Amino acid sequence: LIAPPQVIVSGQLQRCLSTQTDGEVRIAKILKEKFPSASSLKVVDISGGCGAMYEIHIESSEFKGKRTVQQHQLVNQALKDEIQGMHGLRIFTEVPKQ
Length: 98
Known about the structure:
By secondary structure, this protein is α+β, with helices and mostly antiparallel strands. Helices cover 29% and strands 32% of the residues. It has helices at residues 22-34, 68-78, 80-83, and strands at residues 6-9, 12-15, 38-45, 53-60, 88-94. The strands form 2 sheets. It has a 3-stranded mixed beta sheet, with helices on one face. A two-stranded antiparallel sheet has the order 1-2.
């Protein structure tokens, strides 16, 4: 098995491939189901492809009126089973600007 090419960007390991890992696809699917009104969703494996750490950017009207910590709790709750196998998770949430 050959590891995908990698580069350091802002001190983080990023893959040079445009294909998503199985973990990214699985997490994105769960979040799309949990937040059907999400206008933007990006899931990135920031552990170099091994699935230990993810960064999630999600914009959804379902976050309207909720504080950031409440928004993050909703994401954590949606991913509670997946989080058990992770080393870390970075969550960035936004309410769409209308």
